[in-house]
Amino acid sequence: MTTPGWWGMALSEAVNDQSPLAVAYDGEELVLFRNAAGQAFALEDRCPHRRVPLALGRVVESGLQCGYHGWTFDGASGGCTKIPNLHADERVPSRYAARAFAVREANGFVHVWLGEGAPSKELPSDDYLPCGREFTGSTIVNMSHDQYLAAMLDGPECLLGFSHVRLTDFFLGDLRNERGRLVLERGAVWSTQFLPSQFVVDYPLIVRTAVPLNGGSVRVDLLSEEETPLITLMIATGANRRGTTSLCWRGYVHAHVPAKAPVRWRFARACKQAPFHVKSLIDGVAIAALLHAPSRDLRALRQPHLIPASPVV
């Protein structure tokens, strides 16, 4: 089994009652969909009849219908509710059930519980409380999940960027454990600053990265030198197939405008341009050049990665 936990697997708007959504996370192949009332469900993406992916089927009023032989499965329990060639008075055997998983939705993310045990009340996105316009996206990167999380601590500039901001490799304090995440802060400067970062005494900006000890939701904040939030970004990550990593993210700009913010940053903000970008193509040379510094503690504290076995309904 895997370490029990909630995984943010999709943006809320990506899951609908029209087309099933196939996702792969932490060794599980799942399909997400909604019913007409808007409730989200997660089933194993495999029909118990002929092992055909259920994501190739369609959403119907009574659940999810397999596209091969038309078997229909209830989203909440995974039970098979209809087989086309059975008579109305014939009972569908209980063994013809798809594996169902617990689902909870909050702050724009659809979370699925993986592993054994009763789902906890806390969600990875509980501390992501957006206000104003959000900027969202999703992709799959050619990098293993463990390496992605390690690079988020050792060199987040390889994975993401903030508009008109240059991240440095200068750590502002020690790595600390807060609420199940390893948190690290580094200095950042406006891209209009001419001095190299090593000659800067007081950094006008702070980038705070918080990487989970379990699960995969990463929080990144851009702060002023007084630690006033400027931009908040939440990235849900998970191991996909063949050593790749799935990402989906949401982020927003806070109301505060730093007095020393350059004109181009203010202009981009006024035009409601995206204040950050999460990289879909990652430079392998840059990743290989990163020093293994804070990520050593991350590897030591994260629990062993095992394959989930039992469904949670």
Protein architecture, described:
This protein is mainly beta. It is built from 4 helices and 21 strands. The protein has helices spanning 145-154, 263-270, 284-289, 295-301; strands at 5-11, 21-25, 28-34, 40-44, 58-60, 63-65, 72-73, 80-82, 100-101, 103-106, 109-114, 134-141, 160-162, 165-171, 176-178, 181-190, 205-212, 217-224, 229-239, 245-253, 276-278. The strands form 5 sheets. Strands 12, 14, 15, 16, 17, 18, 19 and 20 form an 8-stranded antiparallel beta sheet that branches. A 4-stranded antiparallel beta sheet has the order 2-3-4-9, with no helix packed on it. Helix 1 packs across helix 4 (295-301). It is elongated.
Protein topology:
Blueprint: E1 5-11, E2 21-25, E3 28-34, E4 40-44, E5 58-60, E6 63-65, E7 72-73, E8 80-82, E9 100-101, E10 103-106, E11 109-114, E12 134-141, H1 145-154, E13 160-162, E14 165-171, E15 176-178, E16 181-190, E17 205-212, E18 217-224, E19 229-239, E20 245-253, H2 263-270, E21 276-278, H3 284-289, H4 295-301
Antiparallel strand pairs: 1-11, 2-3, 3-4, 4-9, 5-6, 6-7, 7-8, 10-11, 12-20, 13-21, 14-16, 15-16, 16-17, 17-18, 18-19, 19-20
Helix pairs in contact: 1-4
Individual helix count: 4
Which structural category do the helix and sheet elements fall into? mainly beta
Helix content: under 10%
Distance between the termini: 16 Å
Mean pLDDT: 90
Give the strand tally: 21
Largest sheet: 8 strands, antiparallel
